[in-house]
Specification:
alpha+beta; four-stranded antiparallel beta sheet; 6 helices; 22% helix
Amino acid sequence: MNLEFIPVQTRIVCPPKDPIFDIIDNLDVREGDIVFITSKILAIHQGRCVPVADTEKLDLIKKEASHYIEHKHPSGFEINLTITDNILIAAAGIDESNADDHYILWPKDPDKLCREIRDRLCKKHKIKNLGVVSTDSQTTPLRWGVTGITTGLSGVVPLRNMVGEKDIFGRELHFTNVNLIDPLTQIAVLIMGEANEQTPIVILRNYKNIPFDKNANMDKFKISPEDDIWSPLLCAFKKA
């Protein structure tokens, strides 16, 4: 398998609103590719940007989050842990880096936007199997550093249900599901970078271990806070 992660350097995408279809239309995609796009340029594409001077960030976080916890860190920073789009993320995903004095929110309905981009690329290149994935950076509890997380998708199945299969000793699996997409997203986000790399898109080519489905989205991928194994911690969040 000649697996490739192909970084795509683009022009600067400028807040507060900057449509990116010119970038999308110039992508060289092939049958079976997966296109990873940072949620930041998707949000700017939608105009999901608010001037820093016009709002209080905490008010914006509470507006964007469904649940939140406020915490004063020993360093003095105000930490806002949130659940947004059923994803555990700091500050509702609101970002100030590469934002030109704006707060950049998460894109609205990222599954739908990924589907629109996928349909556009499939039509242009006359292909059938293509995935489009929206990404962002996320911290991991008890670890320094950020890694990538999937925030929306279209065209690829994100989860493999292994319930009923057996391990090497014949023991039947009762709960195991394999996350197929986030490990790939983590590599893509690592390649994208976090500063001035200007590489908001990465194309994965020749990866054969994930199914394609034009109807796939995040719906069956997400767990409600009440059903999650981390529910004893998640129940501490307040509704926004």
